[in-house]
TrEMBL record:
Binding locations of [4Fe-4S] cluster 1: 63, 66, 69, 125
Name assigned to this protein: NADH-quinone oxidoreductase subunit I
Cofactor dependency: [4Fe-4S] cluster
Broad class of where this protein is predominantly found: membrane
UniProt-listed Enzyme Commission number(s): 7.1.1.-
Keywords: 4Fe-4S, Cell membrane, Iron, Iron-sulfur, Membrane, Metal-binding, NAD, Quinone, Translocase, Ubiquinone
Organism lineage string: Bacteria, Bacillati, Actinomycetota, Actinomycetes, Propionibacteriales
Family to which this protein belongs: Belongs to the complex I 23 kDa subunit family.
Amino acid sequence: MAEKSTPSLKEQFWDPVAGFGVTFRTMFRKVVTEQYPKEKFPTAPRFHGRHQLNRWPDGLEKCVGCELCAWACPADAIYVEGAENIDDLDENGQSQRYSAGERYGRVYQINYLRCILCGLCIEACPTRALTMTNEYELADDNRRDLIYEKSDLIAPLLPGMEQPPHPQLLGDEQAYYRGDLATSSVDASDRPAASRAAQEPSEEGRA
Ligand code: SF4
Ligand code: SF4
């Protein structure tokens, strides 16, 4: 049987200390642990987070219910049902126009159980109705609440915007899509707030 050798001085005194080398070095470094969710850090500006359905400066919706976003989605996460805008007033004298175009998105859903936040849908959108925000808190404790409805995705009304349905306040349909809203035929005396909003950048989510 081999005789057990006596540990050297290095093995007795230095090696146990060296074993804690990484621990000691790390103790004096800046802490990198993020205290989420107590502390939230901004994402990169072009981070792909929750979608947003944008509005024109008068509050009308930009979505025209064309479904191109749904067809572009590789995960089949978007469901759109379009409907016709009607300019005739209903029996209550109320306009039935929701967007600047022939149609609008009557039903709009994004299923965040499927969405992989790839951004192909926002590339496909012809009116820049659909963009993506930096919001990344898309978790829940049930599946139903992760199917976002139009009411969850639509951009908030900014000052000067009116809740649709209402007529096109910024001019004819062409005026909306030519990009010359600032010079469109808004009656400044009737619609000062809408006119002001038309000249200011809208609060679109980032693409
Ligand atoms: S981000 Fe990608 S996966 Fe999500 S809805 Fe758009 S196209 Fe579909
Ligand atoms: S979000 Fe854009 S692509 Fe999708 S239905 Fe509306 S207008 Fe069409």
